[in-house]
Amino acid sequence: MSRRPTPPPGRLSITTEVDGPVARLALEGELDLASAGHVEECLASVEEGAPQRIVIDLDGLAFIDSTGLRTLIQAAARARERGGELLLRPGDESIQRVFELTGATAVLHFEAVAGHVDGADSSAVADGST
User: Fold this and answer.
1) Which DSSP helix (H) or strand (E) runs through 72?
2) Is 59 within a domain?
């Protein structure tokens, strides 16, 4: 996934890549009421291929609101229902704070990324599974 300039305020761009059983989405911009529908459409398209794992990269997010949070929680629930998993690559500190303050870290799984918040090995998942 190549890095593009961050979209202007109020916009969200989504890069999608499917590699066998793994689908990756990279979000850049703002995930909120205005853009959640677009994310849902992209997720629905990816989910049609029934990937075993969906990885959503939040590193390019500048903002997330409760609608965006709900979108991710619902996507994780759908993945579990079909026997797959949804992993999130952490965003910056302000984005991660939203997940922590809302308690969403109890239901969403984050990849541990080297050099990120906890500095854990990038091959592990933050909840201890691989």
Assistant:
1) helix 66-81
2) yes
Residue type, 111: E
Note the pLDDT tens digit of each residue in 100-120.
Answer: 999 999 999 999 876 554 433
Rg (Cα) of the chain, in Å, rounded? 14
Residue 122 contacts residue 88 (beta carbons within 8 Å): no
Domain encompassing residue 34: 12-110
CATH number at residue 59: 3.30.750.24
* Residues 27/39, Cβ–Cβ less than 8 Å: yes
- Give yes or no for a contact between 58 and 27, defined as CB atoms under 8 angstroms apart: yes
Q: What is the pTM of this model?
A: 0.81
User: What's the total number of domains in the chain?
Assistant: 1
